[in-house]
Structures are given as structure tokens and as C-alpha cells.
Hints:
Elements: H1 12-31, E1 53-58, E2 61-65, E3 73-84, E4 90-97, E5 106-111, H2 114-124, H3 131-134, E6 138-140, E7 147-149, E8 154-160, E9 165-173, E10 177-181, E11 192-207, E12 210-211, E13 215-216, E14 222-230
Amino acid sequence: MIPIMSTMTHTPIARIALALPIVVLLPIAAATQSPAAPPQPSPMASAPRPNKVYLSGENPVITLRDTPGGSTTVTQVSFWRIHWSPVGPGHVCFVTSGDAKSPGAVRVAIYDNKALLDYLTNDVIGTYNKAYLERPFTPVGGGTFPVGGDSIKERRESCLSDKYKVELVWRDLREPGLVDILPGSRPTNPFGITYLRIPAGSADVRINGAPAPGVLAPDVTFLAFGETWIK
């Protein structure tokens, strides 16, 4: 027996009719979907502190005392490389070596931005450390400030002017740590300060080629990066 084959075929109209219910249902399904949720803030985002920012940059320090573990400072250099301040960027190198009455004593501030020197002296440091006002630094303008070292084993800063050549070296650098001091948390300094602190196991200060007097005070000799002052 030969099976009877159906000769029925789908015409184009029939194909459209079969597909039509699907096409009609698509808008209905889309209309019933919930509206997209608004984007959520990143968990990493946080609002800035409401305090006023006074400056941001670097402030490495070298302190030399009269004896190991002594309390009398005979040489101190506070070097500022400011990336932002309300008076612009720049450099100031505050150098104190020797007693005010001793022969050959040095107390100078080498700078390349006079407005920044005045701002640091009068509006920042001098507001709590009156020695900056009572025994003022001799200003020395036109400074240049080359830098060297990898900040892993060693860091070098030079503060150069027509009259002075101050060379600073931090060696035997230790494990970094983040310091975060809240505003008003210290009786001697009202500013809040955040910075990356890298202690140095040894350091040198040379002024016009001669080593500055004193021995290392390791608790106050360190590199300071990303230092930001607020109040």
C-alpha cells in the first residue's frame, strides 16, 4: 500500500498568522517588566572631610641632637615640597644648625615661592610654634631643589641658592606607615595631618660641604609623602 502524502503547504499568509501572536505578545511582556533600579553609589566612594584644607605635599624632616637619646636639638631641617596650597605650589627648606649665640650658627629658609614661605610661617606653623616668629628664619630666595634616590633604600634632597648648598640624605629606610592625626587631638598643634611616614635609620645634613653637628634622633627623622594639613 502506498501511503497518501499530505499536499498541504503553508502559504506566506499562514506563516504571518502563526508568527503574529508572538509579535503581539512581546510589547505586552515588555510593558509588565519593573522599571530599572537606579544605580547604587560605589562602596569605595566616601564624602570628603568637612575641614578646611591648608596644604598638601611632602614634608621630610631630619633632626640631630647633642647626644644619642639627648633632648637638645642642635640641627634640624624641615623640607617642604608643596603640591597644593592657596598661594600655589613651591618649596621651602627651613634649616637650623647651632645655637643662636654660637659662631657659625645657621637659621635660613631657602625658597622659590615667597608667598608660600610667608604662608607657612604666619598662617600654618607660626600659629602654634612661636619660635618661627620670635626667632625668624633669614629668607633666601631663588632656591632650586633637585631630588634623588628611590625612596626605598635612600632619598636625597638638595636646597641650593647663591649662598647656601644644603644637602639632605635619608638612608636605611624602614617600613612605611600611614599616620592620621585628627584636628584638635593634640594640645600643641591644632591641625589634622595625614601622611605616609617612612622612618630613616640614618641621615646626613651637609651645609656648604660641611657636616652639620649632632647625632641622629630617629624618632623625628623620616620621609613624609602625601602630607595634607586640615583644620
